[in-house]
Design goal:
The chain has 453 residues and is an alpha/beta fold. The protein is built from 19 helices and 15 strands. Helix 3 runs antiparallel to helix 5. The longest helix has 20 residues. The radius of gyration is 20 Å and the shape is globular. The model has no long low-confidence stretch (mean pLDDT 95). Bound molecules: pyridoxal-5'-phosphate.
């Protein structure tokens, strides 16, 4: 019998809890601050735009939080997702490494994002909310929330980053098919959008400002974020928990876990169950967060308090940031164009628990094409960054002559990213650098706030 390629779990093994890494974080986490008072934000500050169920999760110190039956029921449509052993890739790379990838592209929206979208829609519905407003970069998050809102009978309004709106018209149609309304951001529908009209390519930071403004202005509308916040990272931990079980079936445990980072949610979801084991049991799995060199928050950003959006409407978050008004260059991995990172992830990078690595987009696409030609799946440009970092790990293993078990987070497919693949295959994709001058400008414009230790 050849060794198996797919490790699949039955629906009965969909996790029953989400793993909360907050109680295990080293040191005392710095709280989000109210920008006017510089005091920690309380539930009452967040209540105008989030339901209490999610606010409670945002600050919970419970190590595990039960997943409501209604959410597990929706998860049944695509979870558990498959874990693959990449035999064909291992042969192509001629590496002694054992390479596994966890594929979230089997969800209806094509990525990991529905894991939190359905949960967020559920808690909002439970508290009588009528509509959710949100932003989307690559279109993955907007699609996921459109889907989640459809399941729980909520309206959905999406502000889509301008460049993605232009590059990916069918992502918009997908959101509309699930019942959402989609606007190109910056739009002239909000004050925040009008103030950023000169940045026509848009950014996640600008689109977030627009959606927050819509939610704050209306009693029955809430805001929903697809990454960064604790409750979003929490919901994604179904990914890592399933991996632990699937790797057990394969009789292996990873030496290294690699994922891509935009705001940090898929990487958190994949890695936090392993982080917890490292911290509690003294295991030494390496955790590698891979980000674009053109938007290098974890590798070159400042560890400071900053706004989550461009206009400065959100609480100040403790995180690695390139500055809230940094508009990242229009690289094709739209989902990775965010100026900051999840505070929990930033803290773990700061403590040295998680490593970070910056990848150029042509190197990422080169890895994605090589992967597609042997494994079949065409990866999204975001997880292409994780693939590149994993290829480097496989090459290191070869040089060292060691077996190394590598687990990759393949967070979504690239079926709506054909224009990016087309540009790469035609040799028209270039690498964009984040300059020292960009960094100096970013640092000058960070808000006044207490220093982080
Ligand atoms: C497929 C995919 N992977 C990764 C990301 C990055 O987001 P995060 O860091 O929150 O996982 C996105 C964002 O849209 C995405 O669509």
């Amino acid at each position: 019998m050849p060794e198996p390629t797919k490790f699949e779990l039955p629906e009965s093994e969909i996790p029953e809890v989400w793993v909360n890494v907050l109680p295990d974080l080293p040191g005392t986490p710095s709280p989000p601050l109210h920008p006017a008072t510089q005091e920690p934000v309380g539930p009452e500050d967040l209540a105008p735009i989030f339901p209490m169920g999610l606010i409670a999760q945002e600050v919970s110190t419970e190590p595990e939080i039960p997943i409501p039956d209604e959410v597990r029921d929706a998860y049944r449509l695509w979870r558990p997702t498959p874990l693959y052993r990449a035999h064909r890739l291992e042969r192509a790379l001629d590496t002694p490494a054992h390479i596994y990838y966890k594929y979230e592209g089997v969800s209806p929206a094509g990525s990991h994002k529905p894991n939190t979208a359905v949960a967020q829609a559920f808690y909002n519905k439970q508290e009588g909310v009528r509509k959710l407003a949100t932003e989307t970069g690559a279109g993955q998050w907007g699609s996921a929330l459109a889907l989640g809102c459809g399941f729980f009978d909520l309206e959905c309004e999406v502000f889509m980053v301008g460049i993605s709106y232009d590059q990916k018209p069918y992502r918009r149609v997908m959101m509309e098919t699930w019942g959402a309304t989609v606007h190109r951001s910056p739009s002239d529908l909000t004050e925040a959008g009008r103030s950023q009209a000169e940045h026509q390519s848009g950014s996640l930071g600008i689109a977030i400002s627009e959606a927050v403004q819509v939610a704050a202005a209306s009693e029955d509308t809430n805001y929903s974020l697809g990454s960064v916040l604790n409750h979003v990272c929490l919901h994604q931990t179904v990914i890592g928990q399933e991996c632990l079980r699937q790797l057990e079936l394969a009789g292996e445990y990873p030496d290294v876990v690699v994922g891509c980072v935009g705001g940090g949610s898929n990487f958190a979801g994949l890695s936090y169950p392993f982080v917890r084991r490292n911290l509690r049991e003294g295991l030494t799995t390496r955790l590698v967060a891979s980000e674009p060199a053109a938007c290098p928050t974890l590798t070159r950003g400042a560890y400071r308090y900053d706004f989550g959006d461009t206009v400065g409407m959100t609480p100040l978050l403790p995180m690695y940031t390139l500055g809230h008004d940094f508009v990242p260059p229009p690289v094709h991995a739209g989902g990775l164009r965010y100026h900051g990172d999840a505070p929990s992830l930033s803290g773990l990078v700061r403590e040295g628990v998680i490593e970070a690595k910056a990848i150029q987009q042509t190197a990422a696409f080169d890895a994605a094409v090589r992967f597609a030609r042997v494994e079949g799946i065409i990866p999204g440009p975001e997880p292409a960054h994780a693939l590149r970092a994993a290829f480097d790990e496989a090459e290191d293993a070869k040089q060292a002559g060691h077996e190394r078990v590598i687990l990759i987070g393949l967070s979504g497919h690239g079926h709506f990213d054909m224009s990016a693949y087309q540009a790469f295959l035609a040799g028209e994709l270039s690498d964009l650098e984040f300059s020292e001058q960009d960094m100096a400008t970013a640092l000058e414009r960070l808000p006044q706030a207490p220093a982080l230790t």
